[in-house]
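Hi R.,

As promised on Friday, here is the backbone we talked about, encoded as structure tokens. Could you run it through your design pipeline when you get a chance and send me back a sequence?
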């Protein structure tokens, strides 16, 4: 039986706990300074012998959390975004400590398949200059970061596959977008779990591909898939690498 420690016990943490039980995994500890009865800090004692820690905490604390997990040689799945600028340093630390880590901008299986579709579509439409590219995302009003980590990852993949788009404009534009700019709108409001769209638009027609989350359970299931993958491994893996292995 896989033993889990949950770091962050908000909506996502509770969803992971529920689905973990359905899979036969055991939650052996909860770490969240804002939850009564939970452990307040990441310590060896608080982790309570977990095989894997799953972090869905907050961007403001995630980097410190990862550093502590690596220091304790704790295998982990990092579902929180907002720290990827430090990825190279974290990879070096994790490899030095011989621990295992899975990270991702989005742990939804559907979103990771959508990203692969977006890459293929961008490469195809790159051959037809009459089609321009634009993208947008919607999330609930309580989301802490904008643009989302997923939007950043999607934009990165688009730029890698497009010969006509070389940069992204995230902010409000009080001008026409430059020809080599991908304008990516980021909208927050309501209770939307997450929607990402990529459109190829011409004078005659428009083709749009969309990924729309119906339930946060999709992220929890992906995190549990990642935990099962990493619990006996060393090294740092992106969730997209795991999906790539499944596709092969």
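Update: got your reply. Pasting your designed sequence below so it's all in one thread:
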């Amino acid at each position: 039986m896989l033993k889990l420690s949950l770091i962050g016990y908000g909506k996502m943490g509770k969803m992971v706990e529920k689905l973990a039980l359905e899979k036969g995994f055991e939650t052996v500890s909860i770490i969240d300074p804002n939850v009564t009865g939970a452990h307040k800090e990441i310590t060896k004692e608080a982790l309570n012998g977990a095989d894997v820690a799953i972090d869905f905490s907050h961007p403001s604390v995630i980097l410190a959390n990862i550093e502590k997990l690596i220091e304790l040689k704790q295998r982990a799945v990092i579902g929180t975004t907002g720290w990827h600028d430090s990825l190279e340093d974290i990879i070096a630390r994790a490899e030095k400590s011989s621990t295992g880590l899975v990270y991702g901008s989005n742990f939804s299986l559907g979103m990771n398949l959508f990203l692969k579709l977006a890459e293929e579509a961008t490469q195809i439409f790159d051959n037809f200059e009459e089609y321009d590219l634009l993208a947008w995302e919607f999330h609930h009003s309580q989301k802490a970061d904008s643009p989302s980590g997923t939007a950043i990852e999607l934009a990165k993949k688009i730029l890698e596959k497009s010969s006509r788009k070389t940069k992204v404009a995230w902010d409000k534009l009080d001008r026409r977008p430059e020809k080599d700019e991908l304008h990516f709108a980021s909208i927050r409001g309501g209770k939307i779990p997450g929607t990402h769209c990529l459109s190829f638009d011409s004078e005659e027609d428009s083709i749009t591909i969309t990924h729309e989350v119906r339930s946060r359970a999709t992220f929890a299931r992906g995190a549990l898939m990642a935990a099962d993958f990493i619990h006996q491994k060393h090294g740092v893996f992106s969730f997209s690498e795991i999906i790539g292995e499944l596709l092969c």
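One thing I noticed while checking it: Residues 3-107+216-247 form a domain with the Rossmann fold fold (CATH 3.40.50.720).

Thanks again,
M.
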